[in-house]
Amino acid sequence: MFKVSIILACYNVDAFIEDAFESIVRQSAFAQFEVIPVNDGSPDRTWEIIQEYQKRYPDNFFPISFDQGSGGPGRPRNAGLERATGEYVIFMDPDDRIYKDGYSTLLKAMEKHQSDVVIATRYGVKEKADGKNPVWVDWMADPPYVNQNSYEVKLDLLSQRPVILKTIYRRDLIDRYGLRFLESVSSSEDEIFDKKYLLLSEKITKINDVVYLYTVARTGSITSKIRIKVYEDLVPIFKGLDDSLSVYFNDAIVSYRVAALLRTFYLPKLLLLDPGLTDRALELCRDACEAFGFDRLLQTANATDKRIIELLRDRSYSQLMLFFMNHRTGAANRRNRVQAKKLKEMERRPVKLALKASSLVGLSRKAVKEKGGLGKLWTTRIRKNLAGAPNGYWIFMDRREKASDNGEALYRYVRDNRIHDKIAFIIRRDSPDYARLVADGFNVVAYNSLEHWRLHYNSEYFFASHVDDVIIKPWASFGATDGKPRYKLVFLQHGIIRSDLSGWLGAKTYQLFCASAKREYDGLINNVRYNVGPDQVKLTGLARHDLLEAKDGDYVLVSPTWRSFLSDATEAEFRDSEFFRNWHRLIHDSRVSEAMTGAGVRLKLVLHSSISQFAHCFDEDEHVEVVRYSDVTSFAELLSSARTLVTDYSTISFDVLYLRRPVIYYTFPELQKHSTNAGADLSLYGELGTRVEEHEAAVAALVAAAGDGFRSAEDKVRAADDFFAYGDRQNRKRIIDAVLEGSAK
């Protein structure tokens, strides 16, 4: 019996198929391969060439031929499966080629690990091109894995395009579940087969070896010329995806993938369709969505997909295409940047641990700026300084220049309860909090010092309230981009997520991802772009919430969040911004001042750290106090004593809601869009607090709050009770318990 059956569905590929066959016969394991090319009624010389190779290699080639074409690869692939005798199966397209000894590599990995499936990597190349200058590089796992069956691995595979052409499958598993390709469709049959197989597999292996050369948009292929049948097939395709994905995932995940396929494959292909058929194709897309269920599709956590589905549902096709093209342009630019970086990394692979001279020059310049913190490093190699044995430390950190967040709160809990004896807190030496923490007995290590890097890189756990690269891998900005640190990342969060941050947070790898509300938890689990599952995401609550205590302070806190476009603005630009004009007008409205005076309180304005340099632009008087971000000693105290909070999108609103204090969300319309409110759940703001958009309404809300003695309405208290997972001030214990439970596995 052969080890591997290689099945090729062949239609009109006489210009390419010899190259495909030659790449097969050159494999070192060719003697263990049976090749099953299935001619699907090709009118060109495809069948003639197949017969020539059968004569040349009669012990390995076992062709099949249909008189009539099938309209898609499903039927010929199924015929190949019926004929296959190999222990394993590989599917290959006849216009592609195996890269080097790629299929032998797949077989060796399968035999070595005894997996259900082994997935490799491929290059996208132009017609007839070799792999020296690929157009793109396929997905690689970081790190590769062997015989995995976790939710996280399967969630990651769900977000990838079909892996069928770079993968080796176990035939008995295919037969056990009766898996076959849809024969009635001309596209996506590979994704339906592939996803169902992967979700039923218990031992999944991913290697990063390149084994395949995928021909990009060859002349005459389905990717270069689209027929209306592609859209006529959508109803069975959506049903097939539903059947495949539902064996493992819930409705929200299934809907995400179906909607994503529409966005990433079928809508882009409209541009390759005869323009006269576009309206018909869009109507077919709508019919398929209606058959699947608009309500189900709208469960997707992707805001772009939701808007596409809504526009399809409403038959707003012109608006849909404008929206889609705007999205596509932005996505293409991001993809190109990522691909350029990936290709550059591939070029560096042979010397990936070396630092170039230019990097050392840049490093030395940065080291000098650090005023001695890294001064020694310019004469030596970074990797050498990071190298070391595991040190067993638990490292805690908030911002580089500021503590008083979840990192500090959890450090105190671990220290005071003597949970772990090797702990350290990281912060800049020039931060006012550095001396405060030292005086409080913290083991403080200066951020970006050599001690910090060595301790951090080799630590056991890194507990962080922020996960920007300058926090979780500070050495990267100094040129040390290679090597993987030893620590496991515990993301404590800076607040409760209320919008889609998956594009940022989904690029990290977490040991634990803390959530504080069931809605937040569901949003993380049901959005595949976060790349996390139940093993990582745990409902624990925020560490800093344990330190909150409702007090009757003498101020109303006003604290809007940041605007990315204002971070580097000039003072003149800031003063001319919508942000400044709206907030300055509100805090100095005479009606607000009168109401606050009557209630015996003042307004206390605290700006986000990224725009706190403009605090001096806001006038102070007896009614308004402006507090610099750097001067806030304790945010727990600041929030605990606030009678009410006025904000726009800041996550600190949930801290105040946690105390069951009123929150006013002033979300005035803005001409200049910004990331801080992208995907924000405005209905949630109205449910938990009072949301207003106009100045007069904001004034009225503040006056009313003062008139009510800053007491939350009963319905708002009940809504907060339902929203937060816990209110017992045991969040820090739950976080540590989750960490210790995970380490015991």
Automatic annotation (TrEMBL):
Any one Pfam family match given in the protein's UniProt record, by short name: Glycos_transf_2
Cited InterPro entries: Glycerophosphate_synth, Glyco_trans_2-like, Nucleotide-diphossugar_trans, TagF_C
Domain of life of the source: Bacteria
Record domain Glycosyltransferase 2-like: where: 5-137
Name the UniProt record assigns to this protein: Glycosyltransferase 2-like domain-containing protein
Protein species of origin: Actinoplanes palleronii
